[in-house]
Amino acid sequence: MNSETATAITANRQSMEMSVTWSDGHVSLYPFSLLRAACPCAQCRGGHENMKAEPDSQVFTTSLEDSAATHLVTVKATGSYAITIVWEDGHDYGIYNWHYLRKLCPCPECRQGK
Q: How many domains does the chain fold into?
């Protein structure tokens, strides 16, 4: 099985974090603010020409205020390859595929050498 396949996803609204368990056993813990800062949709990236297969490194240092934009409402499966996150402000355009989401993992192990 590909290490870039999610096997479990849990969103904790109290801690404002989403955890993803990957098929290789790695667990990624994503702050909601990071997920929103890294939204891969054309609107958030500034146009189709700025959409990339991997997140921009600047999303790891972007600070977003606690607002409806960083409050997760629900996570929906998008086929068997991705998720779509619905935010409290109504935004739901970003499709976070497994590759993109795995590259977005903020843990020291995954960020090493980046």
A: 1
